[in-house]
Design brief:
76 residues; alpha+beta; Ubiquitin-like (UB roll); 4-stranded mixed β-sheet; binds zinc ion
Amino acid sequence: MKCFYCKADMTESTTTHVAELKNCIVIIKNVPCIKCEQCGEVAYSGTVARRIDEILDTFEKAMTEIAVVNYTGSAA
Ligand SMILES: [Zn+2]
């Protein structure tokens, strides 16, 4: 897969996904992704994107101010 921005090659990696919700900030560590070698742009597969949404939904309801979770360890 090529980078959407700079067209360089993208390789499999992991990243830390930070999401700002209405009431809280959720930090998800070790999220599988593909990362651009040139500009660092990150893309998620459909499965991973859905999983992130599920995790964020959970924390939006939990009313936590800051949450740090491991992608692999969080059983949603
Ligand atoms: Zn790029």
